[in-house]
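Predict structure. Input: CadC-family transcriptional regulator, 526 residues.
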Amino acid sequence: MPYAFEDYVLDQERRELTWRGQVVAIGPQVFDLLLLLVDQRDRVVSKDELLDAVWSGRVVSESTITSHINAVRKAVGDTGEAQRLVRTVARKGYRFVGQLKVSDSLQDQAVEADIIAPVPGAAALELPDKPSITVLPFQNLSGDAGQDYFADGIVEDIITALSRIRWLFVIARNSSFTYKGRAVDVQGVGQELGVRYVLEGSVRKSGNKVRITGQLIDASRGTHLWAERFEGQLDDIFDLQDRIAESVVGAIAPQLERAEIERAKRKPTDSLDAYDYYLRGTAKLHQGTQVAIDEALALFYQAIALDPEYASAYGMAAWCHFWRKINGWMRDRQGEIAEGARLARLAVELGRDDAVALTRGGHALAHLVGDVDSGIALLDRARLLNPNLAPAWFLGGILRALRGETDAAVDNLNHAVRLSPLDPEMFRMQIGMALAHFFARRFDTASAWAEKALGNLPHLLPAIAVLTASYALGGQLQRARQMMQRLQAMDPTLRVGNLQQWLPLQRSEDLALFAEGLSLAGLPAS
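Output follows.
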């Protein structure tokens, strides 16, 4: 006889625990433990009873019992702190305290809960040729139906923000809201709407505080990709809606990109198309090493060959040339700078409404041709098109640091970190912070950020250069000279006299400061 509690169904005959129609993966002993607690829910179950029923009387350690109880709680979305469903009774044992509904069959339970399942025999919609997502209405857990408008407003903001991402196919609000107030089978929703990813969540309001939870699911495989909790005050409800929507979109966009990259990696190489070449190139670009950038550039060229109007691929290819320049990896400096500039111009021409193309192409142009003002303008347009694109913020922050706007640069970089706190390009945000603090004459802070960047990517030449100059101007000459040896080994051509060609600094005082620090550390003048 299946047991139903909250959104879970525990079926003894099938030995399955499901959540909203999805099977929850748990071990056999964890299942037995949960079943025992649910079956004996009217009383406290002692540890001796647990040993008899789950471990057949075999003596196990206290920590083993505790870890299995924790696994039970995790499986049903509970914690040792909350004890919402499984309560610890001190020196007595454990008790299941959730409200239970017993059903004669899973089919009855599905009818009672109004679970939406795919129609038998119905053909699933074909998935689009790019990542696809629907945002389901968030559950209102506040106990006040009058708060539905708040939850709905957050979802609508998230849908609008996701719709700005050109590489993403987003189901319209009117279709996703047909599921409002109904439990769903996420895989069934994916088939009905023809999407690979589903975002769902809940809203809980208490006094002036609100808590939003969200989780991203790969509906084609039934696996969870991401989950997060957001909290805030209701003093300005509309500002809170905007901030939560921005945070959710900023967090899930990199997760979607990573999931798509992994999907592309599983695809046979003889069936790759332009988009998959682009994804593979992006994965390589995130690694930041010389070998990886060379491989990324080749993959972006293959994407361009298959789709000559692929603006984002042009932007990423141009960005690879910039990265080769800044790290001293170019073999034909003049020719490669010209090629990178050509690719960047094509990116911004073909991608006037493509935030990724404008971001990578605009940043590459600023470095390759020295036009930082135009680069910032292009990145600002990218932000208007997609305010949640973290690279538009951190690359824009770096350009603002080069223009001497250090406070604005730090703000931009902090915003990028908030949008994407686990970003594979975090080392770029860290070197941006190092540059901004260096030109603000905060040498100890600049050193700390440069060291963090090098911790993520040890052969990052800009970080080594900033760290060297920061040590020198901060009075740590011995450490500065040690770093100078490392800097010259990476790029023997770097001189005080060609710093402007290496890094397009816009203020003469910033160039003089950088030159002073590197000169003190021992960089030759010419």
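Residues 85 and 97 are 5 Å apart (CA to CA).
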